[in-house]
Amino acid sequence: MTIPSLHTPSGDPRIKRPLTQKTARELVDGDTESHGPDRHDFGGFFIELVKMAAICVVLFVGIRYYIIKPFVVQGQSMHPTFETSEYLIIDELSYRFTEPARGDIVVFRYPGDVSQFFIKRVIGLPGEQIQCVNDAITIINKEHPDGFVLDESYLSKTVKTECIQPTILIPEGSYFVMGDNRSASLDSRRFGSLDRGYIVGKVLLRGWPFHRAGLITSPVYQ
After folding, report:
1. What is the reported pTM?
2. 68-212: what CATH class?
3. Element (H, E) at 47
């Protein structure tokens, strides 16, 4: 009986290389370097790339149109809190779960022309009564039937708060909004209480200019 030789041919160049896992696999399966790229791998990679791009687009659209919105300040109605051309980010998500609070700075569609967006501060809440007398705002509600004067330390010291009507009753589902620069602001003193449906969201942060960038927080009234 003839016993097969266990030696590889002396002319095989692979025998001259050190025996490693790679060279051992070549001896069994053939030279791996002779195989071309797997076309299926390229196809699968392209499909995964398309999927990743689609996910990024969906996330961008969702965030851009349903969670946050950019807003550029125009005019001086919110001076000194905001100045013309400052770039803000508006939070559109929070008010889907909570109601606007006193002191929040909100962006809303102007009731007189819904194609325009205004930015003002929430002063009065639904069902409250506002008294605008002697350059001060007094809030009357269930918790404070005798009223309390709103401490508006965010206003410029030269600002005077004047109203057309000294007493305003805010309907349910509406808010009384005013600009921080009272003499240069078209707000609820002119167009009345703002229906909740016009409010787009509240200011989350200022992105530009860089030296004024940061989160925007609502004041805590005493």
Report:
1. 0.72
2. mainly beta
3. helix 39-66
